[in-house]
Amino acid sequence: xxxxxPYKKQVLETCLQLMExxxxxxxxxxxxxxxxxxxxxxTIVITPSGIKYxxxxxxxxxxxxxxxxxxxxxxxxxxxxxxxxxxxxHRPDVSSVIHTHQPHxxxxxxxxxxxxxxxxxxxxxxxxVVEVVPYGLSGSNDLLENVVAKLDNRCHCYILQxxxxxxxxxxxxxxxxFAELLEKTAMVYQxxxxxxxxxxxxxxxxxxxxxxxxxxxxxxxxxRKAALMPAAAV
Length: 234
Ligand SMILES: [Zn+2]
Fold this sequence. Notes:
Blueprint: H1 5-20, E1 33-37, E2 43-46, E3 62-65, E4 70-72, H2 81-90, E5 96-100, H3 103-110, E6 115-116, H4 120-125, E7 129-133, H5 141-148, E8 157-160, E9 164-169, H6 172-194, H7 206-228, H8 230-233
Parallel strand pairs: 7-8
Antiparallel strand pairs: 1-2, 1-5, 2-3, 3-4, 5-9, 6-7, 8-9
Helix pairs in contact: 2-5, 3-6
């Protein structure tokens, strides 16, 4: 038994839900990766590299510290582990990161087209825009640096050019919801664009105004997490 077991179980359950929904692009591959931060620690639980989700058991998941050192797990972590760690380090509001190859969102990475907040619930949940992160090879430092350069907008979802999507949030449950909302928005936006007619948008300024509710929640989450860290308890 390990204190990380509940987190491993939760990550694997999230992976299986994403796989069933087709968010990894296939149901029989190992694409995509999922991680969660352990409460009160600079530690994450992340999926291993190159193993089908249906072949995974919780004990196969990796536990890494923020320096990338493996604390538990028999396999190499996902090649995108440095990208996940960079998200946690640059976004202290984030406790979960999900990287998918979800089809509708990925399509916008092929036309290098950001997705505006077209629905008010999306502006609150995801942010005022879903930006495209310039291409970098999977697992490369280029990709990591390109992601980090976008994180300051505090949004919860990004599209990786010619690759997939990257979602993050305060919990696995919320981040899974953000990934679903992103896919729904991308699909509806594509359907609307396909008509060739003008796309209507939310009133000017409303998406950013609504997203301020989210950034206030993020600030509260940052304070909650900081209070859990050992140094804060002294
Ligand atoms: Zn990928």
